[in-house]
Structure prediction request, 696 residues.
Amino acid sequence: MQLQNDLLLRAAKGEYTERTPVWLMRQAGRILKEYRATREKAGSFIQLVTNPELAAEVTIQPVDLLCVDAAIIFSDILVIPEAMGLPYVMEEKKGPQFPNTIQSAADIDKLHIAQGEEELGYVAEALRITKRELNGRVPLIGFAGAPFTIFAYMVEGSGSKTFSKAKAMLYREPVLAHQLLQKITDSTINYLKMQITAGVDILQLFDSWAGVLSPEAYSEFSLAYISQICDAITEVPVTVFAKGAFFALPEMANLNCRTIGLDWNMSAADARKVLPNHTLQGNLDPCVLYAEPQQIVKQTKAMIDSFGIGKHIANLGHGVYPDINPDAVRIFIDTVKTYSAEKVAQSK
Amino acid sequence: MQLQNDLLLRAAKGEYTERTPVWLMRQAGRILKEYRATREKAGSFIQLVTNPELAAEVTIQPVDLLCVDAAIIFSDILVIPEAMGLPYVMEEKKGPQFPNTIQSAADIDKLHIAQGEEELGYVAEALRITKRELNGRVPLIGFAGAPFTIFAYMVEGSGSKTFSKAKAMLYREPVLAHQLLQKITDSTINYLKMQITAGVDILQLFDSWAGVLSPEAYSEFSLAYISQICDAITEVPVTVFAKGAFFALPEMANLNCRTIGLDWNMSAADARKVLPNHTLQGNLDPCVLYAEPQQIVKQTKAMIDSFGIGKHIANLGHGVYPDINPDAVRIFIDTVKTYSAEKVAQSK
Prediction:
């Protein structure tokens, strides 16, 4: 089906766009009271993730309510460990917790490689419903966690400021770490292929904990696996967002992906220098959305100016925080749309 | 008194050293069973901080037990808010908590500017005892939090992944934020002057939460105040360690300080390029100390190689984690000492 709004895909491919497309990480989430109502209906976070009809419903909410240029499937990066045989629970205020973690070769042996529909059919079904109900309005983004981030949760057992247990395995038992990372990577490729079959238009890899690694460790234990995934996905454009991995941007120039996401610590100008061929995504500081409207407009315009027109997908530099007012999000979105359109018009 | 080992001071001043000096952030802390015994004796963390005899005792322990090239006074950066009228408590596993936080102009008005001995005499006393008992063996490092990091705690009320409340004030009420930052800065200068009078040989500013800010926000709300402090401290060399602020290194070249600390995300080679006149401190990934001895030696040598000989103070890229084995720390320290001495000898 022909998309009515394909700005995001054209921007990802480096093609002309009449304005900069915009969406927000975590746009399908707690900032919307409509999301909170659906989640209430589902029961728990995980019940919402595993209920295709309700997952599709919250996926589409921000398209209707915020007028973003893309929908991103409502799911969680931790469905992969679960599909591999390591389930998680989501505890209020504590975030994801793994009752069992991976500590030994025997633990890794017990994990299987996720095949796709078999374990993760509920995500495929949510994608099919979403695709049907979106009816070509905007592109649908699929996603997965980058292998190192998934590894970090599976070994650490929860979020962590330092991920010192996960990192200890990298330094102490690198062979074991690589075995686990490869199993995660193979599972992730199967999962992303499943998402493509189910209809996603573009895929994003989230390396949420990239920033805990040194440049050398990141290259060996994260980028090598992201690279495998990018090479395996040829059907749709891929975006890689590695939060905190400013040091890896030069090496990312070699990735077979179309778009690189930037967090708000990173400078658009510096990233353009080392990534001349990639589209960039980002990167307003999410906390700007706590400010008064005038300040949001000012900072959003400065962000658009810093990337310039073309090869840019506007976003925050991180997921939107749950206590942000949706009206502030709308000001951000409207400013991106009108200001970038003005700039394109002026450049002609 | 003439120091018997002044390697750290010579390195900070960019002078010749026969080997690279080494110490660890948080060396006076939970890694040592002797520290845990003293803390037990004190009662609580805050009782240890405010007890000059016991604070001096744990300050000296790593000099005796780990043979580091400097002692750093055992204290906490949050003594400054307390001295300004905003007390904190330390909760097991939760870290520091502020029963009251700063939210308004009235809250800021109520704070007073710390004068030094008057509120923080217990730190001065701990420094005098330490200085006497060190008896010139190694230099004594004093420290304070950088104003933005102190601000972040005072507004947020505790540690946080995002410090979104503190950052919201920067964007929403910048005038108020600057007022609070100036009060903290004035207090910090008085506090550091008191430490100099009490005998410290060198001072370090810790900007632990630098990494939550965008480059523009960091320049306006953090670096401007660090710069005031560096300009005010002329008696002893100053080190600035801004964790996560890789983006600010070029601007730090203008700081009136001798040494810039690097975390383990930052590349020594890149830092040398933008900071040709400063001594650099750091930056082994603390998690390397979980590895086998051979791997610790290898990674430590690689770290020494990355900085080269001269204008380098070896350290971890962050405080040592409490569950690290002191024997691993000793391997790190011994490797720095012997390997850097070999390199100096070879270079002659």
Summary: The first strand of chain A starts at residue 71 and ends at 72. Chain A has one domain: 7-346.
